[in-house]
Write a structure and sequence with these properties.
About 55% of the residues lie in helices and about 15% in strands. It is an alpha+beta fold and about 280 residues long. It is elongated.
Amino acid sequence: MSDEQQPRPDEQGTAGHYERADASKFPTSELGQRAAVEGTAAAQGWTGPGLTKAVRDHNRRAAARSKLEINPPQADVLREKVLALFAEMEEATEVRRAGHEAAHGLRQIADRYAKAESYEERDAVAQQAGGSLNLPEAGLVRRLAKALERTLPDLIVDAHVDGMNAPAIARELACTDRHAYQVIRDRPWEAHWALYRAMWSPRMDYEWRKVASGTVETTETAEDLASQILDERLDNTLAREGARVCVWRTGDVYDMDDARGIATHQPHEAEFPQIDD
């Protein structure tokens, strides 16, 4: 080596030291290789298109070495599916958060509403709450209102069956009396009724024995209907012994204790027929 080829003192020791990596430790599976490439790309600061290009280039080289045919768009499809999955998870988390927030806020409003002692106080609570709802709370109220529109007529009818008149229903729902009257008039409900004969026991208690039953459509309350049926079917024998009519809405449990309406004719105890024990 000539003097010109000898390294100068300030250049000595600057040569890099290279060691070949152990190829047996390289990942062999596609997922492992992909993870290795993504890790390297991230270390190099590649993101977005740069990272996608690095992964695609690696897949092509791996395919060439293994003589496999890989459709390049498959990596893009997988990436889009993963991103869509993450977006779906984030959306579900946000929906749950908003739902909890709305439920908590409306529970506080419901507590104030329950403590109101007049319809005027209820209106005031609603007016105050309506102006302070946040977006999730307002969304919950609107969804409830839309769902209620489908079931409100039957709710009005069911309250009427139990004895509420149209003005009372209208005050509770903050609607007009006319609307409540119209729903009740236009939607007859099907009633199931049963007529019982009273028996008197030496044990000083009653026993009611069913003697007739049927169904009828009506717009009356269950209590009024029970009274009408009792008046129509109270013959001399029932008048002397005692009778009871129970009314349910069709589909209810037909138990006397669960009747929507009850009408009873009760004579003096001495007139009741005796039951031998």
